[in-house]
Each structure stands twice: as structure tokens, then as C-alpha cells.
Amino acid sequence: MSELKGVCVPACTPFDKTGDNVDEKALSAHLERLLEAGVHAVVSCGGTGEFAYLSEAERRQIHQLIAKRVHGRSRFVAQSSAVSTRDTIENAKFAEGLGADALMILPPYFEGPTMDGVMWHYETVARAVKTPIVVYNIPQNTNRDITPELFRRLLQIDNIQYIKDSTGDFTRIQQLIATGGKVLNGGDTLAFPALVAGCPGLIWGGVNATPKEAVRLYDLVTKGDLNAAATVWKSLLPAQIFYWTHDYNSSVKAATNLLGGNVGICRKPALPLPETDLSELKSALLALGRPLAAAAQ
């Protein structure tokens, strides 16, 4: 596989009005919107895709739909995590069978192992598949932190080259870059400085709402036009701060709907934004200079 880089979007999962079923038609339309904007990769069943609230059958349904829809148009990354190593391997092999370009994998979470156990988990999964693995670090949710020291050890495994770091800590991003591994920033508020610091790409949930602006930001940074990139970033930043300081998935879905998408609301128990928060989000989105839809959720 060529290098995984650029704007990688963990796609939102639309549900029908009951919330009981994945809305395949809406998901296909949303993917088309992202692909037309030029995103470089689509991540299926990421955190922004609400994987924690999906059944295993639904996750596979979404993996299959996204694999088919993006084939030949962007990279396909399948988030394949599970609490147990056995189930993670099963998920990873399923995604590999769909032609995934990479597998994004969390450390074991909830009553997780020691860090030696985390290392064993990744080693064992990596031996079971040939597809490159993106280590997914979001310690605020897993209570397991892939430190720069541990990432250096993980880089000794043949098919581990990447880490998605969602700590939102710019010092940590720079420490990870210094390991020589490929760091995909996952903290929305750091997208611009992370690219400038040397991240080859971003796995960025907020891209669901603003794919064109995100791709333009990346293109300008890679061309070295940092002044123009800073202008784009200034328009994006208020919304990124809002997402990061409010109910994340509900915020991203509301913003996507306000900016012309149609991804509905989150599966409960995640609730729609209250009116006061929605009003604040609309104000943040005004920095984009784009008209907003009447309904957000």
C-alpha cells in the first residue's frame, strides 16, 4: 500500500427515524459528498461513526457498504477493534477480506491489560493479518495511553507504521513524530499545526461537516502556502473548538446537517444538542461564510 496520508474522515453513521437501523441510502449519499470533496481516505466504524453503539452485524454492514462505495476513489480504513484479541483478529480478517487499505485498532479497553499486555495484543493481531495497522490512541476513552516510548516498540512490528493520536496534545504529537513513525492527528483543534509540524495526514471527525475546506487546508499546507492555509484554518477553528468542548458526535452530526449534509441524529443514549448549544454551534459555523440549513437535527 502507498502511504496513508491526507484528509481521512471517520464517516458518520446515519440511522433511520426510529434509530434502530442503519440508513444505507443516507450513508451512501453522505459518502458521495465526502468523495466529491476529494477526501483521501474514509474510515468505517470509527468513533465518529458511533461504533460503540453498533451491533457486530451493523459494523460489518457498514464496512461492506463503505468498501464498495469508496473502491478506487479513496483509501478505505476499517476500524476493527474489540476488547479481546481473539475478536479483534476476527474483525481484522473480515475487513482485510473486503480489501481494506489499513486497519485502525484500539488497545484493549475496559478492564484492560498491563502495557505489556497491550504490546502482546498488537503483536498478535499484526501476525494474523497482512494489512497495515493504524494504532488508535484515545486514552481519555480507553484508559490506555500509547506513549511515544510504547509506539517506538510497536514500530518494530512489520506492519505497524501509523498511529492516530486523539489526545489533543500538541506536545504529544511532536513527541510521536520524533519516533519516526507516521502520525495521523486525531485532535480536531490541532489539524493545522499538526500538518505544519510534520503529520502526513489527519483522521478528523469534523471533516464530515466541512470536507471541501479540510481538503483545501491540506492542499495549501502541502504546497507550502501557509498564509492561505491559515486563512482557511481561521474559518474552521471555531467549529473545531465547539466539537471538542461539547458532545462530540452530536455536534459533528448537527454541523453536517446545517452545512448541507443529511446524517440525522445520533443513536441514543447520545442525545441531540440542546437549543442553547445548537445556537452556539451555529454562531461558530458562521466563520465559514456559508449559509446554514434551517434544520440541524
Question: Could you list some keywords that capture this structure?
Answer:
297 residues; 12 helices; 8 strands; TIM Barrel; alpha/beta; globular; 12% strand; eight-stranded parallel β-barrel
Low-confidence stretches: none
Total helical segments: 12
- CATH superfamily placement: Aldolase class I
* Main β-sheet description: 8 strands, parallel, barrel
How big a fraction of the residues is strand?
5-15%
Q: Kindly provide the radius of gyration, computed on alpha-carbon positions and rounded to a whole number of angstroms.
A: 18 Å
Instruction: Please give the CATH class.
Output: Alpha Beta
Counted beta strands: 8
Q: What structural category do the secondary elements indicate?
A: alpha/beta
- Give the domain tally: 1
CATH topology tier name: TIM Barrel
CATH architecture: Alpha-Beta Barrel
Topology, please?
Layout (H helix, E strand, L loop, with lengths): L5 E5 L13 H13 L4 E4 L11 H15 L4 E5 L5 H13 L4 E4 L9 H14 L4 E5 L1 H4 L5 H7 L5 E6 L4 H8 L4 E4 L5 H7 L3 E3 L7 H13 L2 H20 L2 H11 L16 H11 L12
Parallel strand pairs: 1-2, 1-8, 2-3, 3-4, 4-5, 5-6, 6-7, 7-8
